[in-house]
Structures are given as C-alpha cells and as structure tokens.
Specification:
Elements (H helix, E strand, L loop, with lengths): L2 E3 L6 E3 L3 E3 L7 E5 H10 L1 H14 L1 H14 L1 H17 L3 H10 L24 E4 L6 E5 L1 H9 L4 H13 L3
Antiparallel strand pairs: 1-2, 3-4, 5-6
Length: 172
C-alpha cells in the first residue's frame, strides 16, 4: 500500500486519500482530501470569486470545450435523457419501450401507421407512450394524432362510441 504524508495534518495516509494533481511530481496533491475539503469550506467565498473570475476571463475557451464535449456525446445524452423521462413519466425502461415498439412493428396501436409528425427540429418524433391517467398503466404506443385524439376525448369510451355513432349516422 502506497502512502503519503499530508502537509496540513501531518498524517501518513493512503495515496487514495489524495486528489490527483498532474502538476506535481508524484501526481498527487500535497494536502489530503479531508484537509482540502475543510480548507475549501472555510474559504468558500474566496474560491467562488476565483472561479467566477476564471470563467469570465476564459469564457470563449470554456464555451468551445463545452460545445465540443456536447457534440461528441450528443447521442449518449439524448439516450440518457430519454431513459430518464420514460422512467419518471411512465415508470418504464428504454428496453420496455423498445419491446413495445417491436411488438407493434414500429406502428401506432390504433391507426397502424408509422409516426409522421415532425418535431420542432424537423425530425420524425418517436411514438408517444399512451397510458391510463387514473392508474398510470401503459397501454401502448400511439402516433401523435391518435394520442391527441384520445386525449381530446378525455379517455372516455362513451364519448368515443358517440363519435363513432355520429360518424356512421352522418356518412353518405
């Protein structure tokens, strides 16, 4: 087990108890994590001001780094966001969504068509998760039009039957 002495508390500690620091010969900070946290907590205001000043001075460089990072990992973030939203909204995993999608042949459970609605960035939207608003139980995947139609009828079967009856009676 490799050890190192902390310059602040003077204790001989495991190297895992020190932050990494590329500028130092041994690659580790000279103050242990515990002492560093204590020091930062006592000098929080000073560190906040330094950080703000650094960000102001290096805004363009930091923005470029951020943009490159986001571009590089765009698909990963998209997938993570999708997984989070499915879990939060429907208590459903991405694997369960994909299973339903495959089971429905990538088509709407009502009209049997592929999704055709465009998102605000010009791409085809994924099918919407249809669920019972009272129980939260997922019923299937619907295209945007069918999902909105059911929503406008407030998931009321009687209203839907009345709509069917109306259409049949007025059919020429």
């Amino acid at each position: 087990m490799k050890t190192k002495v902390c310059l602040k508390c003077g204790k001989n500690k495991n190297v895992k108890d020190f932050y990494k620091d590329k500028s130092r010969a041994d690659g580790l900070c000279n103050i242990c994590i515990e002492c560093r946290k204590e020091y930062v907590e006592k000098n929080k205001e000073k560190f906040n001001k330094q950080h703000q000043e650094y960000c102001r001075k290096n805004y363009i460089v930091l923005k470029k780094k951020h943009d490159n990072y986001m571009k590089k990992y765009k698909n990963k973030f998209k997938r993570i966001r999708r997984e989070y939203n499915l879990k939060r909204s429907f208590n459903m995993t991405l694997a369960e969504f994909d299973f339903l999608l495959k089971k429905q042949n990538n088509k709407c459970a009502i009209c049997g068509k592929l999704e055709s609605a465009n998102s605000n960035i010009g791409k085809i939207r994924p099918l919407s998760v249809d669920h019972d608003h009272k129980t939260g139980k997922v019923r299937g995947l619907l295209c945007n039009k069918c999902n909105q139609a059911i929503g406008l009828f407030s998931d009321d079967i009687n209203m839907l039957f009345n709509a069917i009856k109306y259409l049949q009676e007025t059919e020429e």
